[in-house]
Design brief:
disordered N terminus; 15% helix; elongated; 13-stranded mixed sheet; 17 strands; alpha+beta
């Protein structure tokens, strides 16, 4: 990051109500009649999943699985004792919407079962899944996952190019400016030996998007989470400054004190964000941040604004 005296005023985005997270977080409109499905034993837990939750001897989660250009929703249940479980599963992407129901299943300790939706082709960058679990007759808080259909990139090409690396991966996720290079992004964003400043990241990203333009701001946790949700639903990955040593997988040998990552989705429980997948340009790998990890990595990553988050997100 450049000198802390450089431009970028606090609060470039007005504060959003914390309750905004409850509104439209998972757009999973579906037919009124869910298609009945049989329970199966297949499961692959990955980077587009909620946290595991527990109720009545059952652990359960929701994921979006992707393979090539396809995606599907998967609801997962694991038992530690006797439990009766049913689930309604939903998927939505653009004009596509469908739902499936796995009827009540009596399970014993040590079993794993999944309810799986159909494969579909996301026609827009953002797609979503939702699941409503009933365990031992008690309805649980709904789970949701919203993700941008694909993100990929290569490791940052220079030690101070985490900003260009994160921008390139974000543009890849939007299928925008496919031929642009990290070196071009570094030039456009005035990246120097200290790194890339948030206002310059926003300015550079806006060369390549016509709508839902990027804005940079330093704001509190709830406002930042709201902005990540809004940006994801608009098909725009969010770029966040973190302390790389505090990422779940560690810094990967990255020696700098501040670092850019790209957040390309979020998972919810009861409409509240609980987990976010991210791309790390230090090693071109993806990972997951739960809320505690998000706070630990991003809170006060830029000392000029204690307890605020340096975020560049679409609107």
């Amino acid at each position: 990051m450049k000198s802390l005296l450089k431009r970028l005023g606090r609060g470039a985005i007005g504060a959003l109500s914390a309750t905004a997270l409850l509104l439209g977080v998972v757009a999973t409109a579906a037919p009124a009649q869910a298609v009945t499905r049989s329970w199966s034993t297949y499961f692959a837990y990955g980077d587009n999943c909620t946290l595991y939750h527990s109720a009545g001897n059952a652990h359960y989660a929701l994921c979006i699985q992707r393979s090539g250009g396809y995606a599907r929703a998967i609801a997962y249940v694991q038992t530690v004792g006797a439990a009766k479980v049913s689930v309604t599963l939903r998927s939505a992407a653009g004009s596509y919407a469908n739902s499936w129901g796995c009827t009540t299943l009596s399970m014993v300790a040590g079993q794993n079962r999944t309810c799986v939706g159909d494969w579909y082709t996301p026609t827009l960058p953002t797609h979503s899944a939702g699941a409503s679990f009933v365990i031992n007759g008690v309805a649980q808080s709904s789970l949701g996952v919203v993700t941008i259909r694909n993100i990929w990139g290569t490791p940052q090409e220079k030690d101070n190019w985490c900003g260009p690396g994160a921008m390139k991966a974000s543009l890849n996720a939007m299928n925008t400016a496919g031929s642009v290079t990290q070196s071009t992004l570094a030039l456009q964003s005035d990246t120097d030996w200290l790194g890339t400043w948030p206002s310059d990241v926003a300015h550079t990203m806006n060369f390549y998007v016509a709508t839902h333009k990027y804005v940079s701001a330093y704001e509190d946790k709830m406002t930042s989470l709201n902005r990540i949700a809004v940006s994801t639903r608009a098909g725009r990955p969010s770029l966040l400054v973190v302390r790389p040593q505090d990422l779940p997988g560690g810094s990967g040998g990255y020696s700098r004190f501040r670092h850019w990552i790209s957040i390309y989705g979020y998972a919810t429980r009861g409409g509240m964000v609980e987990r976010m997948p991210y791309f790390d340009p230090a090693n071109a790998r993806t990972g997951e941040l739960d809320l505690n990890q998000f706070v630990r990595a991003a809170d006060s990553a830029v000392p000029l604004y204690p307890h605020d988050y340096a975020l560049v997100a679409g609107r």
